[in-house]
Design goal:
single chain, four-stranded antiparallel beta sheet, 13 helices, alpha+beta, Mitochondrial carrier fold
């Protein structure tokens, strides 16, 4: 008797099979990553402008300035170097388009698999993925922000090699500044985008689908529009903490989470909501597209509820003396 090697199916059997839509899941994922890269390039000026507005919240003496003043300074940087400022940090962001999905969704799928969530990740899986993937993603975000951190002083993007060289002098510890706020940011994105929005979309489809002709894409955008304001309220203060912690000098003293929170609190006390939500006005339309994309992102990673293990045996029938092939599948 002989036994062939076991095979453990990770991807669905039809992952590379062209469906009725004319695309396989692999082709759809490839197209989506290309679309994500295009979106990253197109919205990079918005991301850069928002960081500069948040970064210029204090003057040279360390005193908080009015959000209008910070906005004017950011606009002056863009007028002086429109192309360089608009494309600052786009390199690390493009790398992050593909790389950040590996640890984030890998951990998400792993936890969902062991918890038996099936193809609908739960809050526990989203929480675990957000916390465990943050250390892998944070260095890319740190490099992105450092590239444009000194644009007002130098008028140029800081080279990645220089950032890495300065970080290497401190055993690359500065690359992990802002990891804790990123955990909260990722958690909010995962819970709202991968858990909350899909459930809301199903509810909208069941309610509106019966009375209207809205399809899946339309209901997805409606769900995104409802969830987006919540996302902005939750994540903007966290993004502000990241900017405070990641734009300080790498060779200088780092700013801790508590100190960053105190700075945002002082800004809020002096300027109210305008201080908390610096730079958010121009970026407010973005979350709707981000959430709609994140839901589609998860659909390309099918979570098997159980592994499929196949075993094949070749047996000899004593009466007929013929060989018989018997296959079993578990899962």
């Amino acid at each position: 008797m002989s036994m062939k090697a076991q095979s453990l199916s990770i991807l669905p059997e039809d992952y590379f099979v062209v469906k009725k839509s004319g695309l396989s899941q692999f082709q759809a994922m490839t197209a989506y990553l290309g679309g994500s890269a295009f979106q990253t390039v197109m919205d990079n000026p918005v991301t850069a402008y928002r960081q500069l507005v948040q970064q210029y919240a204090k003057d040279a003496s360390g005193k908080a300035v009015d959000p209008k003043v910070a906005s004017a300074e950011a606009k002056a940087v863009f007028r002086a170097s429109p192309i360089s400022a608009s494309m600052s940090g786009v390199g690390p962001r493009l790398i992050g388009v593909g790389f950040k999905r590996i640890p984030k969704f890998g951990i998400l799928l792993g936890i969902s698999f062991f918890l038996g969530d099936g193809e609908s990740p739960g809050v526990v899986a989203a929480t675990g993925a957000s916390i465990l993937s943050a250390p892998f993603i944070n260095p890319i975000r740190m490099i992105e922000k450092q590239q444009r951190a000194y644009f007002k002083q130098t008028g140029a993007v800081k080279p990645i090699t220089e950032i890495l060289k300065e970080s290497a002098a401190q055993r690359f510890a500065p690359l992990f500044r802002g990891t804790i706020p990123l955990m909260g940011h990722s958690l909010a994105s995962a819970v709202l985008g991968l858990v909350g929005q899909p459930r809301l979309q199903k509810y909208i489809q069941s309610e509106l689908g019966q009375n209207t002709s809205l399809g899946r894409t339309a209901t997805g955008l409606v769900a995104s529009a409802i969830v987006s304001p919540i996302y902005v309220v939750v994540t903007n203060p966290l993004s502000r903490l990241e900017v405070i912690m990641q734009t300080s000098s790498i060779s200088g003293k780092s700013i801790g989470v508590v100190e960053a929170i105190k700075e945002v609190a002082r800004d809020s006390a002096q300027f109210g909501l305008r201080g908390v939500f610096r730079g958010q006005g121009i970026a407010s339309p973005r979350p709707s597209l981000v959430f709609h994309s994140s839901t589609r992102d998860a659909t390309f990673f099918k979570i098997p509820s159980k592994p499929t293990i196949s075993r094949t045996y070749i047996l000899r029938n004593p009466s007929s003396k013929q060989m018989q092939k018997i296959s079993f599948q578990f899962g």
